[in-house]
Structures are given as structure tokens and as C-alpha cells.
């Protein structure tokens, strides 16, 4: 029998916004104890978009270094996962396709299922590569997590984008079979078309997440999955970083292992570094956890790790990946650390002002001030169209 061709993540990088609101600053205005933010939910700050940043600019900024490094000739598909859609019809990835100057002979599609859609995109991409290993797929996941002001979810906001280049014989990790799947119609978190913020039943969402973990784990095991002891680490979707602790404890319990809080803390520590400071980035969140783990000191060469993806509503998947020899040579660790440290801290008043700004809904022309230091920006709107530009190389509209 021919051994299965390894297919998976060949390059992986993220971008976030240029502004940041710390939880110290938030606590001064909400009156919540800072310990609740830092320890209760495990968040220290949240990325906030400048006026000329959105899901398209973040995704293009995340993808640009991947294109710089690998070129664009082999990319035949661009899959864009988001739940912060900017248009009901047109895929956000088409703007990115133009900004990056990708080949016109490319398929571009947007995928939605809350935070889960990036994992669906990853699996679809792997299937495409298995059918034609000469091509590559660019998977983008980009979101801005916004909750009502003063709501329990407000402290878990954030924003970020992931770019993953999916290919045969990947440099970073290969995606394994089987995986465990679970879908259940549950109203834990949803956003009707007429709302800019979601409706959330917080407690229910935490329970639904843990139930989905149980179900995907059982499905994974029934399909011949590995025992828990063979997984070197597990990355969880992180709506807030403490959720990873809760999830890990839950999984250990399912596997019949009792572990102390210190052991749980140690097990997930490497996966939470980026999410603690960026906040929830919905579709990108699990892959930020993965990036955080890969960028950490832990040597993962030839190790198998678990990934748990959850999207409210709900769909979940438990999958595993095997880390490749020499994977560190393919990482963008320094760029990731700089993306976080170079953000400009803003005051609570600036945060509220940014939250109150809205794009015209009557087709009126708007020129946005140049605020972002990123390579791509939203320059304005005109006749109901968003106008994007590449800053280092202006692209024709
Ligand atoms: P809340 O009411 O603000 O917080 O809501 P709480 O009172 O439950 O406290 C949170 C934790 O802080 C608790 O710990 C407290 O004990 C602790 P726990 O019991 O959970 O271990 N705490 C303190 N700790 C130290 N010092 C203190 C202190 N005070 C309290 N002084 C909630 C929390 C998660 C419900 C809220 O943030 C929320 O509604 N978030 C949005 C929904 C969400 O993130 N759900 C998670 C699962 S659903 C999901 O992951 C999908 C999602 O990403 C969307 C998608 O798929 O698209 C959200």
C-alpha cells in the first residue's frame, strides 16, 4: 500500500490590529476587579481596529509575508473564513485576491460557521491538495469580536487574522485522519443580519462548548483515534484564554485522568500567550493558539498534537496534526512578537469613540484618515463600495 501523502500547513502567520486596549484601562471604567479579567477569564488586553483596518486588511497583512516567501504561482484556491462578513454576497477574499495580486485563475470562497469555519476551510483545503498535490490553497481566517458595551462578553473582545498555506509535504505540520465531528442546533451565540453585535447566552455557550468537546472526543476515539497520552499538547479554541484550562480539565476527566490545577496550567500555558493579549479572534483563535504553541520554547518535532475547534450554534471538530522535522525554520516568531508589542495603547474614551464610528449606509463618499501602519488599508467608501489600497504598492481599484 502506498503511504498517504502528508498534507497540511506549509506556512502559518498572523496579523492583528494596530491599537490595543488593556484590561487595566477597561477595569477602571467597568468597575470589575482586575483579577476577574486577568485570572477569571485570563485576558490582559484586546486588539482594537483603527478606522482604516478591518477583516480584509488584517487578512491581507497576514497573507503578505506568506506570498513574499512562497510566491503565488501554485495557489489555485483562496478560502476566507469569517463571521464578521462585510457583504452578504461578495466574498471578502476577492478584495484580498486583488490586494495580493493573485492569479486570476483562482477560486475564492467565503465560509461561515461562527468560530469553526477556519477548520472547515483547512479540511477542504487538505482534500483539494490530496486530489492535486501540485497546487496550494491559501486559507485565511479573519474576525473582529465585538460585544455590547457593558455586557459580560465585552472583556473578551479582540481581533486578528491567520494566514495558512496548505500544501503537500508541508514544512510545519501534516493534518491526520481521523477527526471527531459534532453538530447540534443550540442558541448559545448568534448574530442576526440586522445586528452588529451577537446575542449571547454566556453560561450556555460554555456548557455547549464543553459538551461539543465530549462529543467530538468520543467520535474521534470511536473512529480509531490516538489515546490521549500520545498527544504531546492540545490547542483549544479560546474565546478567552481560561476556556482552554476548563476544556483541558474536561478532556482529562473524560479520559479518566485527574490532574491538578498546576498540571493543567502547565499543559495549556504555551498555547495562550497570543490569545491573552489579542482577545477573541473567532475563526482565527484556535490557529493563534497553535501559532503560540509553535513559537514557544517547546520542541515539538515529530510530535502529534490535538486541535479542538468550536463554533457556536454549533459545530465542532477534534483533529490531530503531526509536527514536521525542522518546522522552526518555517515560523515567523519575531514578526508575531512585534505585531503584538508594536500596537498602540488607547484610552477607554478612544475605544468608545472608535466603537461609535460607522461607515456610511447611504452611498456617500468617505475618505478615512491614514492610521494603520499595516501594508493594506481601507481608504474609504464610495457608492456603497469599500475602497482598499496596498500602502507599499498602490493597487488599481
Ligand atoms: P461573566 O458573567 O462576566 O463572568 O461571564 P463570571 O462571573 O462567570 O466570571 C468569570 C470567571 O471569573 C469565573 O470563573 C469567576 O469565578 C472568575 P469560573 O467559575 O468560570 O472558573 N472571577 C474571578 N476570578 C478572580 N478574581 C475575581 C473574580 N471574579 C470572578 N475577583 C462569560 C463570563 C464567559 C459568560 C462572558 O465572558 C461571555 O458571555 N463571553 C462571551 C461568550 C463566550 O466567550 N463563550 C465561550 C464559549 S462559546 C465560544 O467559544 C464561541 C465564541 O467564540 C463565538 C463563536 O463561535 O463564534 C464565543
Question: Which residue ranges are poorly predicted, with pLDDT under 50 across at least 5 consecutive positions?
Answer: none
User: Level of helix content?
Assistant: 25-40%
**CATH fold label:** Peroxisomal Thiolase, Chain A, domain 1
CATH superfamily, called what?
Answer: Thiolase/Chalcone synthase
What structural class should be given to the helix and strand makeup? alpha+beta
Compute the number of strand runs: 18
Mind summarizing the main beta sheet?
10 strands, mixed
Oligomer: single chain
What does this structure look like?
This protein is of the alpha+beta class and 397 residues long. 34% of the residues lie in helices and 25% in strands. A hairpin with an 8-residue loop joins strand 16 and strand 17. Helix 3 (55-70) packs across helix 4 (92-99). The longest helix is centred in the middle third of the chain and has 21 residues, at 202-222. The mean pLDDT is 96. Bound molecules: 3-hydroxy-3-methylglutaryl-coenzyme A. 3-hydroxy-3-methylglutaryl-coenzyme A binds next to helix 2, helix 6 and strand 13.
Tags for this model:
binds 3-hydroxy-3-methylglutaryl-coenzyme A; 3-stranded mixed beta sheet; globular; single chain; 10-stranded mixed beta sheet; Peroxisomal Thiolase, Chain A, domain 1; alpha+beta; 397 residues
Amino acid at each position: 500500500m502506498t503511504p498517504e501523502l502528508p498534507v497540511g500547513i506549509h506556512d502559518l502567520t498572523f496579523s492583528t490590529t494596530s491599537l490595543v486596549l488593556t484590561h487595566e484601562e477597561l477595569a477602571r471604567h467597568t468597575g470589575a476587579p482586575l483579577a476577574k479579567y486577568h485570572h477569571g477569564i485570563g485576558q490582559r488586553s484586546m486588539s482594537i481596529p483603527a478606522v482604516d483596518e478591518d477583516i480584509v486588511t488584517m487578512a491581507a497583512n497576514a497573507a503578505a509575508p506568506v506570498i513574499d516567501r512562497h510566491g503565488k504561482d501554485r495557489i489555485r484556491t483562496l478560502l476566507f473564513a469569517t463571521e464578521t462578513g462585510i457583504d452578504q454576497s461578495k466574498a471578502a477574499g476577492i478584495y484580498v485576491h486583488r490586494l495580493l495580486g493573485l492569479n486570476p485563475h483562482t477560486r475564492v470562497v467565503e465560509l461561515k460557521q461562527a468560530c469553526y469555519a477556519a477548520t472547515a476551510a483547512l479540511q477542504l483545503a487538505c482534500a483539494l491538495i490530496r486530489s492535486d498535490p501540485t497546487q496550494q490553497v491559501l486559507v485565511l481566517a479573519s474576525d473582529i469580536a465585538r460585544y455590547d458595551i457593558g455586557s459580560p462578553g465585552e472583556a473578551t473582545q479582540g481581533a486578528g487574522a491567520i494566514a495558512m498555506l496548505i500544501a503537500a509535504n508541508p514544512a510545519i505540520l501534516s493534518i491526520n485522519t481521523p477527526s471527531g465531528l459534532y453538530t447540534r442546533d443550540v442558541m448559545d451565540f448568534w448574530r442576526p443580519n440586522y445586528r452588529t453585535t451577537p446575542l449571547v447566552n454566556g453560561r450556555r455557550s460554555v456548557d455547549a462548548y464543553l459538551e461539543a468537546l465530549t462529543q467530538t472526543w468520543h467520535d474521534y476515539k470511536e473512529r480509531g483515534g490516538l489515546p490521549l497520552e500520545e498527544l504531546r499538547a492540545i490547542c483549544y479554541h479560546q474565546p478567552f484564554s481560561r476556556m482552554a484550562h476548563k476544556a483541558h480539565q474536561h478532556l482529562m476527566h473524560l479520559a479518566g485522568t485527574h490532574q491538578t490545577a498546576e498540571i493543567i496550567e502547565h499543559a495549556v500555558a504555551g498555547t495562550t500567550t497570543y490569545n491573552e493579549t489579542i482577545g477573541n479572534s473567532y475563526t482565527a483563535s484556535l490557529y493563534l493558539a497553535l501559532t503560540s504553541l509553535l513559537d514557544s520554547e517547546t520542541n515539538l518535532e515529530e510530535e502529534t498534537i490535538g486541535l479542538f475547534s468550536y463554533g457556536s450554534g454549533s459545530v465542532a471538530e477534534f483533529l490531530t496534526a503531526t509536527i514536521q522535522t525542522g518546522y522552526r525554520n518555517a515560523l515567523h516568531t519575531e514578526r508575531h512578537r512585534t505585531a503584538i508589542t508594536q500596537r498602540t495603547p488607547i484610552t477607554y474614551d478612544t475605544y468608545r469613540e472608535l466603537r461609535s464610528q460607522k461607515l456610511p449606509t447611504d452611498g456617500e463618499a468617505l475618505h478615512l484618515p491614514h492610521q494603520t501602519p499595516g501594508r493594506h488599508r481601507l481608504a474609504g467608501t464610495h457608492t456603497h463600495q469599500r475602497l482598499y489600497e496596498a500602502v507599499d504598492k498602490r493597487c488599481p481599484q
